[in-house]
Design a protein that fits this description.
By secondary structure, the chain is α/β, with parallel strands linked by helices. The protein has 16 helices and 10 strands. The chain has helices at 4-13, 54-66, 85-94, 113-119, 131-138, 143-156, 175-185, 200-203, 211-231, 245-256, 261-271, 307-311, 317-323, 338-341, 346-353, 367-370; strands at 23-28, 69-75, 98-103, 122-126, 161-167, 189-194, 236-240, 280-283, 288-290, 300-301. Strands 7-6-5-4-3-2-1-8-9-10 form a 10-stranded mixed β-sheet. Helix 10 (245-256) packs antiparallel against helix 11 (261-271).
């Protein structure tokens, strides 16, 4: 994740940027879902079965402490379909782990909203465009209104809530709507995820943006970041699954705040770009551990091995390569910004070329710009 707003604010005010001293796990607690989204990386559907019982889940959370896992994103499928999701989240919270909920919002109602706010440190609700676009993309008429109502309900209970938006050819024309909606309703965060080729997303590659469309969109997103900072608008902007956004951000800072460039470069270097297998890990609904949710290869399964043994496997060549200085082919070979983006998405590279260590095909920077 590239936390553009936080980074801009802290370099301007000369304050420490928000850094997590540990790792993040994105955990798909279920593959059941009441929607059929076109981009779903886990191919979730209502007929899936949960395979992880709560005792295995709790014992794995116990291991997180010794492995410096400080943050769990509760995902799915739709995580709220699990009746024990609150017990799981509270167990993690009691261990001092930060809990985020990633949901479509359709199961949030007056009977559970306060419990959700009390149990999760942040609630991200998926809104993929204006009403027509969202309902089409999510496969359910009326889902937009229900999700917006859920966000307002969480707000009314004192919860921190924000939008999760995936940018594709289907949703790109709604980008301005997402920002206007957040400004109107004063939602605290906009998380914009770039498209990754996995699950249904791999079956719908034509949904991805062209490099020209992506660059134009990122420029708009980052310009809104500067606008909010300069106008004191307290809406956080974060982008995901496209680490070269940080390079675009650096170029824009050079024009606006040239005196802050060296400070920014230092912080971007410390951030380190793509963190799959380093500070990011995924556990899917079947217990498989992967470097990120989209990754084409598995490291092991918590129903067969302990999480610690999987995450600390010294014999894993995959983990070793992900955690070492990455050797990426293509235009990454001579890119002067590799220390910032770390080569981008390995999942996209493999999906397109079959080469896990090839260049990220969605990188929108030209060879001239990175030479």
């Amino acid at each position: 994740m590239f936390r553009a707003s936080n980074l801009l604010k802290t370099i301007i005010n000369d304050t420490p940027s928000r850094v997590l001293d540990g790792s993040i796990v994105i955990w798909n607690f279920t593959n059941r879902c009441n929607l059929s989204c076109l981009h779903c990386y886990s191919k979730a559907d209502i007929d899936s079965n949960d395979t992880l019982d709560i005792e295995i889940i709790k014992s794995t959370i116990d291991e997180f402490i010794e492995n410096k896992i400080k943050f769990i994103i509760f995902s799915g499928g739709e995580p709220l379909v699990r009746k024990d999701i609150f017990e799981i989240a509270q167990y993690a919270k009691d261990k001092g782990i930060i809990t985020y909920l990633s949901t479509n919002g359709l199961y949030i109602n007056h009977s559970n909203a306060q419990r959700i706010v009390d149990t999760f440190d942040y609630i991200g609700i998926s809104i993929d465009g204006d009403e027509i676009t969202h309902d089409y993309f999510r496969g359910l008429k009326g889902s937009y209104r229900k999700s917006i109502d859920a966000m307002k309900l969480v707000q009314s209970k004192g919860g921190k809530v924000g939008i999760r938006f995936t940018i594709t050819k289907t949703t790109i024309d709604s980008l301005e709507h997402i920002f206007a909606l957040s400004e109107k309703e004063n939602f605290s965060k906009i998380y914009i995820s770039h498209f990754v080729y996995s699950g249904r997303g791999l079956e719908n590659l034509e949904m991805d943006l062209s490099k020209e469309e992506r660059m134009k969109s990122v420029e708009y997103i980052l310009n809104k970041t500067f606008e909010y900072q300069e106008n004191g608008k307290d809406i956080e902007i974060v982008t995901g699954n496209m680490e070269c956004d940080a390079i675009m951000f650096l170029k824009m800072v050079k024009k606006r705040y040239p005196h802050l460039v060296s400070k920014l470069v230092s912080r971007l270097s410390a951030w380190g770009g793509n963190s799959a297998g380093r500070k990011l890990v995924n556990i899917d609904s079947f217990g498989y551990v992967k470097p990120d949710p989209f990754f084409p290869f598995r490291l092991g399964n918590i129903q067969e091995q302990s999480f610690s043994d999987i995450w600390n496997d010294k014999k894993s060549l995959l983990l070793d390569r992900l955690r070492s200085e990455r050797q990426i082919s293509g235009k990454c070979t001579d890119c002067k910004y590799m220390f910032i983006c770390n080569g981008g998405s390995r999942s996209r590279a493999f999906a397109v070329s079959g080469d896990l260590w090839g260049e990220d095909p969605s990188c929108y920077l030209s060879e001239k710009e990175i030479a």
